[in-house]
């Protein structure tokens, strides 16, 4: 799409390199930087005070090696990401203050990072053939283009763009060092390689958020520091071809199957690339009218529940922070009112020191649209219904335009999706914007997460999703384990998704058919019902149980009542009704909550287990969720 329309034959017409590429004001434009609200300026400068005497932490070889010895990334991560966040914070503070107060510390940070033996994160070294996969000691000659490298390069590139004139006044060696390190570690290997899996040049390789995430800083490098017009042209053309591979393999319904917390890197990364190409060509590059580009952006308002809660399946976090500025700009570029409204409704960016990655381009672009964005005073659109037919994801809320009432989302799909969990047929339910029945998400990434033992991790297994377990057999990972016959129906009073999930389980489960229907009824007393109609092969009775995962305090009704009460907010309860004649209930506490799960849900979760009282060969079971309005 990009290369076909704007490829090598037309790149010269776009004028890349003909004039200054200035997507936002540099530090010397004092009028522009003074135009930022005093509140925003003061918040950044207050944040920066804690780093006035910052001691740049050492990156220890023993911490790098820990990935191989124990699978632990946390010890290296703390120092590695902190260095970069602090540098980014100091750079923006210097642009705001403008009097050189933070320059010495900025120079310290630049040289600390430039002198690192490698920018490559240990778990990413195995992605290309030159690296010895068994070697735990980094080499100063091993360069590869992966997430940590490109994020580091992006930070240095935009630091040079913003403060380059101040650096030159001190010594030309400062800018020269940034240019040399960025070219050696990112631009040169990018041009030399077609075999990075994320580039999309390997037939049959499905790319994910890595593609635009990596291509964005690479593109910035060719636009900002490459002076040779032939190399610049070759680099931009290659980025276009790589982005085409990302767009071509993206679900045609626009659904980010990696989830909302990855949308900023996937769709947001794509938008950043398209925005840079548009700005650098003075608007001559424009692909925002393409339907797939529009649909990729439109995903976010369709899966927004309330506040920072989004529809989250697989590795995705339940709480996402997509960044209001990027969402808002994407909506303006594609003419999507719902995306604009969502972007305008989001709060200002939070404390950047709490983020893993410090996107200096994104933060700075946002600063110069923040006043306009927040002045809109828009409310999130709270879309009533959405259906992603390719990915097989349904969302529905009781009433459009408000978080009040019931909200349900359900998925079919398969068990070989990006950041996959074994969760075909799972669903989630919210009430008044609060979580009732949820998808847990994932813990902090570690070596096992990306190994052959991935599905030994408990939170990836179907028994810790809102799904049945039959004969003790769980869903299996792989593309053949999928939903069949997924059918979506929607009318004013009802939205539902019906599918057969039997094929998501291996043969030993002995399931002939398992038709699951997830439905929201709006008429009368609103209710979410989940109905399972199942049959075993050869009519062989099977032991089975149904799992429901909740963060809510849970009370089981008396024996035979068929009721469970969930307290989802002070003074607010939901009621789950089930078939007590056939099912007995127990509650299990999930107390082994590590840091990433705790950030989303707190210290404890619960699994409601609805267990068949006796083995059964066929049947129909329904749970119904309503809100206690009395």
UniProtKB/TrEMBL annotation:
- The Heparinase II/III-like C-terminal domain sits at 409-544
Query: In which compartments does the protein localize?
Result: Cell envelope
Q: What is its main location?
A: other
Q: Name one Pfam family in it.
A: Hepar_II_III_C
Q: Which GO terms describe its cellular component?
A: cell envelope
The Swiss-Prot or TrEMBL record annotates one GO molecular function as:
lyase activity
Q: What is this protein called?
A: Heparinase II/III family protein
Q: What is the lineage of its organism?
A: Bacteria, Bacillati, Bacillota, Bacilli, Bacillales
